[in-house]
Every structure is written in structure tokens, then in C-alpha cells.
Description:
Strand content: 35-45%
Order of helices and strands: EEEHEEEHHHEHEHEEHHEEEEEEEEEEE
Number of domains: 2
Helix content: 10-25%
Strand order of the largest sheet: 6-7-8-3-9-10
CATH architecture of the largest domain: 3-Layer(aba) Sandwich
Amino acid sequence: MELKLERIEQRVGPQTHLYPLDLTLVPRAVTVLLGATQAGKTTLMRVMAGLDTPTKGRVIADGADVTGVPVRERNVAMVYQQFINYPSMTVADNIASPLKLRGEKNVNGRVAELATKLHIEPFLKRLPAELSGGQQQRVALARALAKNAPLMLLDEPLVNLDYKLREELREELSLLFASGQSTVVYATTEPTEALLLGGYTAVLDAGELLQYGPTAEVFRRPQSIRVARAFSDPPMNLVAAEAVDGAVLLPGGMRFPAPLPADAHGAVTLGVRAGSIGIRPREGDVALSGRVELAEISGSDTFVHVDTPVGELVAQLTGVHAFTLGETVTLYVHPAQAYVFGATGDLLVASRGL
């Protein structure tokens, strides 16, 4: 399905939930709606589905204006945060329900196939209440896939699952979506999910669509500080600085080399992702020494907060590292991995990687 939103706006009373936006989804691909809570993701998804009619604008599906057409008259599959299944029906009957409504043949075979893909084949004769939360969400996903709708909408479907289950399902979903024919819209607050799912990403903030494009491109070239903040976890390190003679002048007088535009001058912001900061020098690195304020281990990474002359910086280090609070450490940043944003927050220099 090609879904096009034209000047969509959504207001509820005096509050604006969505500011005017245009968005054309790439057909048969995954589009991730990425943004913090109350960014507008669910509101936009409800408009796409036909659950809500926009205050202004049009929804175009495969060339037809479907603005205001209710969801029951559209071929749309939805999966929510909650584990929504038919409680009095077995797992097999839950998955089979859209197949039977369409009058498909070989329903049992299709149910078995989907159950195998989502690793719930041992539970087909059970009721949803007899399953764990992760298993129930797999049932909801299987039923949505069984519908084979041209548009599939998933509103933070993994948010209520524990860390291990989220990791497992993320990988499985990316494979399932890649082999399907549906246009998939997936809402999340987590940049990691957007990167794992790939496809395309639409970044939303406070009801505004900030950027849309291939996920890797949006991640590497965020058009503004607002996009960079939304697409960085942990948050991107941001340092207020000044553009002087083609370089970035940091607090304390340190010069940070950056390929600034010729007309760049005045206030700028230097941005460095936590994962781009190391504790071992490489050729061309800029060194920043400071005191350890906090060190914490999360999964297989260590996050260390260091008070430096340019402000507190957070480094994300692969593996487990031991730090003593108050000890002096040196952080290393390569200029090719830094971003520079102008006084209005727009991108001036993107990371070039290494």
C-alpha cells in the first residue's frame, strides 16, 4: 500500500496534538515512528488507521481519499502495547480468526506456519490467559500477520515486555517484516529499535514531523539538534561553542577542528554521541581530561560520566570497565565523529565516521 498524508493536523479542543505535516510512506517497507512519549506517534497512527479523523488534511491510500473512512471499512492490521487477544478462544483460534473471516483454505496449515515463525506452536491449544506476556504478544502478532493486510500498524508492541524478550522479538520482527508484502508502521521511543528494524524512520517531537528518510541516513545526518536528541540513546553530548576562523572554539579556549562552512560564525553547538567517545587514543583524536562523576554498567556496556573543562560528557564503552569516583580519566574524540549545529539548531557538519 502507498499511504500518503497531506497537510494532516490534529487538534483536541485548544490543544494541538499534530502540527501540519506531509508524509508519504515507502510501500511494502518498514517506517518507524520515533519520538519520546507524547511526541504524536499514537495520534498519527490512529489517523493512519482510520480510528480518528484529522482536524485538517487528507489521508490517501493507493490514490483514494480515505479521510474519515472508519477502520472497520479499511484493510488494516494493528498491534498495541497491551496483549489484545480473544480471551475465550484458544491460541490457534485467535490466529485463525482473520483467515476464517476471509474464507481462506488450509487455515490449519497457515496457523501452524505462523505459530512456528513466532515460536508459539506448543501453545496452540491453550487460552491466552495461560500464557506469559511475551507469548501473548506473539499471539497478537501472529493474528495481525494472518490478516495479511496491506497496512500493518504496531504501536510500541514490545514496551511491556522484559529486556530479554524485547531483544528476541526485535530480531524476529525485522525478519518477518522483510519477507512480507505489507507497508509496516512501527512506533517506538527507542532509537535502538529503529536501527535494528532498519527501513525508514520518521522522527516526531511535540507533534511535529522533524525528518523522514532511510533510517541509517536520518541517524547519520540528523537535520537538527531536535532530531539528534530523539535519535540518540544515551542522549548526544552537546557542548555550547563558537565558530572562529573555520574551527570550533570550546569553553576554556580549546580549538576543535571541524570542516565548517565558510560563512559559519558565532554561536554553534558541538555534538558527539556517547558511543563515539573512547578512553584509548587514536591518530587525530582530541583529548579531554576530567573527573569521573558516575560509572554504571548496562548490559554489555559501561557508561561513564566525566566532568571536563567543556562540561559533563558521557562515554559509552563496550565491555565492563572499572572506574573510581573522582579519578582522573582522559576521553578521546575524533573530529570526524563529531556534529556541529548552528545557532538555530540546524545541522552544519555531520559525522563522517571512521
